[in-house]
Design a protein that fits this description.
Number of helices: 8
Helix content: 55-70%
Strand content: under 5%
Number of domains: 1
Mean pLDDT: 86
Oligomer: single chain
Structural class: mainly alpha
Largest sheet: none
Radius of gyration: 18 Å
Low-confidence stretches: 1-9
Length: 199
């Protein structure tokens, strides 16, 4: 299957969002995100540092989804040569950036935002990710019974190895693949969210 024809039948992001019923946990996540935007107490220094983390996380996610063909080919190149879950590593950087941007060290309200952000990151990292990884890794092993164990033997599940693992796969980054994964919407969402937080 070529890049140009991959995921042709995958509906656009907005259609998938409209058709999706949010679980109580997802409502909680969206509610928390709205609360952060409303209650944020940014100052210029910490806001810029936070924006740097968000930009790094978004760049990692763009790099990731330019290599990913979901359920069609096991990704082992690009960021997948360093981590088996680079998209979640990018998401963690974005969460850290938003938490930093939302608070400050000048008063109780700003520090409270940092504490709330740390709690949220802890829930994401210690509560959500282990369960998600267990399901994802089992699914990859089922879909790719030969490639997935070999990838797992050489590449960490989350924190990246410094030198890339050479899997022998010649696949390179593709903008077509990035668009097919509907990842382009998230940079815009982060920019709008940060702008709303600052204003």
């Amino acid at each position: 299957m070529t890049d140009r024809h991959a995921y042709r039948t995958t509906p656009p992001f907005w259609q998938r969002l409209a058709a999706r019923r949010l679980s109580p946990r997802q409502w909680l996540v969206w509610g928390a995100a709205l609360a952060v935007l409303i209650l944020a107490e940014p100052d210029i220094e910490t806001f810029l540092v936070g924006c740097g983390f968000v930009a790094a996380g978004l760049a990692l996610r763009v790099w990731t989804f330019g290599h990913l063909e979901k359920n069609h080919r096991l990704a082992t190149t690009g960021p997948y040569a360093h981590s088996r879950n680079p998209a979640y590593l990018g998401s963690l950087a974005i969460l850290v950036g938003i938490a930093i941007a939302a608070g400050n060290n000048d008063g109780a309200a700003g520090i409270a935002m940092w504490i709330a952000g740390a709690v949220g990151i802890g829930v994401f990292f210690l509560g959500y990710l282990p369960r998600k990884f267990a399901r994802e890794h089992a699914r990859m092993a089922d879909i790719f019974p030969a490639e997935a164990p070999r990838h797992a033997a050489h590449v960490p599940a989350f924190w990246p190895r410094m030198t890339p693992w050479a899997s022998g796969d010649p696949q390179r980054f593709s903008w077509v693949r990035l668009r097919a994964n509907h990842e382009i919407v998230w940079p815009a969402a982060c920019v709008v969210g940060l702008a709303a937080m600052w204003l």
